[in-house]
Amino acid sequence: MADNYRLNIGSLRSDVQLTLHTHHAARIWMGRPKNEQKPGIIGLSGFCSIINRMTRGATQDDPYSDWWMINLEDKINESDAALKDIDQRLDDVMANLPPAISISNNLSIQPVRLPLYISNPLGFKAVYLLTSYDEIVRRILLAQHVGLIGRRDMELWIDEGAAVLRKLFGLAQIYRYSGACRDDFAANNAKAEAARKMYERHGEIPQDILEGTRRSTFAPPITRGQPESESPEPFSGDIGDGED
Questions:
Q1: Is 165 within 8 Å of 43 (Cβ atoms)?
Q2: What's the rounded Cα separation, in Å, for the pair 92 and 114?
Q3: Distance between CA 41 and CA 28 in Å, rounded?
Q4: Tens-digit pLDDT profile for the chain (244 aa)?
Q5: What does the buried/exposed string (b/e) look like for 154-182 if buried means 16 or more CB atoms within 10 Å of the residue's CB?
Q6: Is 18 helix (H, G, I), strand (E, B) or coil?
Q7: Nearby residues of 97 by Cβ (< 8 Å), 6 or more positions away
Q8: CA-closest candidate to residue 52, choices 114, 140, 121
Q9: Closest Cα to residue 169, out of 220, 118, 123?
Q10: How far apart are CA 29 and CA 114, in angstroms?
Q11: 10 exposed, middle or buried (CB, 10 Å; 0-12, 13-18, 19+)?
Q12: Contact 165, 79 (CB under 8 A)
């Protein structure tokens, strides 16, 4: 009997919020628009916009979109390991705290809370890295405050963590929608040739990715609908590696 009825059920929604306690992490989220004095720096919100375009390209059977999703997934895992290494160093430092002293977490009395509108798992994975960095910065500031590390180490470790995220964002910025699908490569037509030219500085695309036998863990289904048009970069032009 139930098969005779069509239920008009809407899509699922949930409210997701990000809480940050440090200015350092907030700057990573926002990035910096370019001006006359300094180049622009892409933030996490801009990174997520690129990921969304990449995902749309992958649904169109663009092998280069798949390739870059795999590259970013690998880079996210590498970044996670790098942040955990800093965290382990902090564990070693905090172990020098005398047993008679206990310290609670240092949390901002006025943290920033940001609503998240992210439609891609890789975007969320990057957010997890940002929350890890936020916690690392809090721990570094606390360790310096109680005399377990000096100011130089404090600044070096904070910058080291920021560089991990900046490098991830920089890898995402290399991505461009190729305008070709796997059928174009099978036909070896002009679209395929233009795509190879676009990415030639990054070497040959691996054969298993070109054939579609290897895709990202978070790759979307291939729909092969209307071609995706490349939209302008949020920070087009010169993007620096430096901090604010």
A1: no
A2: 32
A3: 9
A4: 555 566 777 766 677 889 999 999 999 998 877 777 777 788 998 999 999 999 999 999 999 999 999 999 999 999 999 999 999 999 999 999 998 988 888 888 888 898 888 888 999 999 999 999 999 999 999 999 999 999 999 999 999 999 999 999 999 999 999 999 999 999 999 999 999 999 999 999 999 999 999 999 999 999 875 444 444 444 333 333 344 4
A5: beebbebbbbbbbebbbbbbebbbbbbbb
A6: strand
A7: 103, 146, 148
A8: 121
A9: 123
A10: 10
A11: exposed
A12: yes
Please give the radius of gyration of the chain, using alpha carbons only, rounded to the nearest integer: 22
Whether the CA torsion 227, 42, 139, 79 is positive or negative: it is: positive
pTM of the model: 0.83
Question: Rounded CA gap, 218 and 69, in Å?
Answer: 8
CA-to-CA distance for 43 and 170, rounded, in angstroms?
A: 10
String of DSSP letters for 125-166: HHHHHHHHHHHHHHHHHHHHHTTSS-HHHHHHHHHHHHHHHH
In angstroms, the CA 229 to CA 26 distance is: 31
